[in-house]
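Before relying on records like the one below, remember that each one covers exactly one chain. Contacts with other chains, cofactors or solvent are not represented anywhere in the record.
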Amino acid sequence: MKSLIEVAFLVAASSAMWANPVTWYLSNVTFNDGGRAVGSFVYDADTKTVSSINIQTTPGATTVSGASAIAGGNYSVLIPSAAVAPDLIFMSGSTVGQTFRRLALLVPNTLSNSGGAVQVTQNSLEGFCNTQLCTGFLAGTTRSITSGLLVAASSTSPRTWYFSGTFDDGGQAIGSFVYDATSNTYSSVDIATTAGTTFAASRYQNVLAPTSTASQIVFAAQLPAIAGTRALLLFPSSALANADMTVTSVGAATETTCAATACATFSATGRVLTNFSLSTTRPSNYTKIVSQVADGGPWQTGLLITNLTDNPASYAITFSQDDGTPFPFPGIGSYQAATVPARGVSFLTSTGAPSLVQGWAKVDGGNNFSVTSLFTQKAANAGGDQQGSAIADAQGTTSISIPYDYIGAVVGLALTNPSQSPVTVLAVGYDETGRILMTDSSVILPANGHTAFAFTGKPGYSALVNHRGLLRLFAIQGGAPPYTGINALLLKFLPNNSFATVGVANQ
């Protein structure tokens, strides 16, 4: 195998990018009236600066007016005088004044770049500003925080690595894995290689241990590995560490087969990666989510995966059902990976099942693609088949807003949890005047879970029937950060069975 490794393409340099700022997430932050605060911000303890603020608060249980001080707000601005933690005071607009909400998150200790968990003190408040400088609160408008944490991943925690490359036979590789340098262990491996002139497509979800180290990784397509098992060998020129970094050079990267049981030796034939990227920085829009797929009975779903680049690009798509487990979507399967030519389109269409099945789809490699779902309801009415489409969303967000119209129609909602931990989805519903009709109605989704329902069939949501207005969804997440968020899609059905999909606004 050595001769095959030696012909691997060498990229010019390697670099390590160490990122000091830490993303802090609000975890189970609760007000004394039952309202919640969710979201995140980035804090750099070295420069004492706050950035990327995205925090929302929900109304109290008895709040009626969406304009009241305790009706919740969106926070994206830090009051300049409060730029040094532990006093983090956020404002709901770019101009100060008494018409703006203020959120004071007070913590007993200064935040650091090491991550961890910090208690939010119970003298933290939300309300309306009392002066033009927003230095305090208007009397009688505030509510206090009774519990909650600010949490951030440790600076020495295991890292998720994102991998991509192109083989010398035209095939490509894309995927990710988690590596813990402290224990020298790999987990959550999911890498796809697409077909080329030498090899067919394969999927890697295993690592050979103890063969693999920080500088030598051997992925196996199956365990136990036997002679003929596909293997993917990566030899990063910089040892992987529990730090933010990017490796742009590889000593060798090949796909081959095991020549003996347990992959003790490898075949002398295979294909070589001619370019290579391995980074802890998640590519922008790397994952796209299709929040609803359905097949069977009158329903059929098609997926259009369009390559937006002028180079071949690869994707991997996984289908999951309501309980979070993968399932074979009729006509497509539970998993598929492919390379799409420059400006090309991959068409995937379900083929029909004896009974209705539903779930959601995840497309990795989505940064290079536009993903459209096309829903067909066969023989919906006298006009024949009816179709609707939706554009897939980037993976996960803390808060979602969707307009709804349940007057003379039936409205359904699809919810997706693309994270590896259970999530609670809180819902707040308004009518078109901003009056609050529903507060804190929650749905719990398992890891990778999904649900779809009509408002009439869900406790709390029935309060929105015969109204139109705004539905807001908030992700209350468990597990360890970083948090992924949620995705959603709204569907509206008219009495003649024609339907339309309504896209969401991710906040």
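Residues 1-19 have pLDDT under 50 and may be disordered.
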